[in-house]
Each structure stands twice: as C-alpha cells, then as structure tokens.
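Researcher: Good morning. I'm working through a list of sequences from a screen, and I'd like to move beyond sequence-only analysis. For each chain I'm collecting a predicted structure so we can compare shapes side by side. This is the next one on the list. No need for commentary yet; just the structure.
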Amino acid sequence: MKSLIKLCLGAAVAVSLSTAAVAGPFNETDQCSSCAMVIKKYPGPKGLLVLKDKSVQKFCSARGTACGYAAAMKKTGVVHVFMHDAGAVDWKNPDDSKLIDATKAWFVYGSKVKAVMGPSLAPFATKEAAEAFQKANGGKLMSFADLTPEALGCGEKY
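Model: Good morning. Structure tokens for this chain:
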C-alpha cells in the first residue's frame, strides 16, 4: 500500500512539473498578462497560471501572479500556479527550471528587496528558506492562502 501511495504521489508531482515545463519557460518576448510589460526585462521571481481552458497567463512578478490568480479564479478557474523559487534562483535573472507549485510555497511580502510593480513577493519552496530571507530582508511571512487581493493591494481590476 505504501509503495502505491508513493507511486501516485510521484506521478502527481511529475504531471505538475511537466505542466510547468510546457507552460514555461519565459522567453524574451513574453508580455505580462496584467501590465503588458516584457517579463524578462525586470528582476524578481515571476509566475504563470495554467487555466482550466488550457491557456497560460504569464506575469512579470510573483505579486502580479498572485493577483492574477485571484482574478482568474473568479472567471475561468486555475489548474496550476507556478512561481520561481526565490531561494533557488538569482533574483535578477530567475532560472525557469526552478518553478515551484505556489499553492505549497511560503512567501515574504514587502521585503527590502526590489521587484517590479510594487512591493516584492518572494516565493520559497520551504518555510525555513522564507524565514531566513525574512530575517535578512524584512517583510511579512505568508502562506498561499494569505495572498488575497486585499492583503497584496492588487487594485480594482482584481
């Protein structure tokens, strides 16, 4: 029974990661689904949504991704949400092979580290990595459930 559970969990992770691979990587001409800026021109973790209709929305920041998630859930629904793991990438040039399932991530909001389009939102694969970043850079520790439009100041369109 344990090996069957491990096999099922492994398959779920593989499907999730392969979805990120199909949806990404970010290329030099991708424009943010929220603000239309060229995504790779700006620092900080980025993110993407895979919607129920199989379309993909890409964002120039993790905060934009979280705000976009809230809007997409109201409209079409979201199958997956991925963001760069700030604990595993260069802040100025995130590596697309380091996209994580944001629903399982920990976040630091409003640190002293600069991002595009308002306060930074730094996603981390582990709570320990988020806490270490918070200790060094300030900000508020948050779970995915805490990332509401009100908490992030997403604006009226969300």
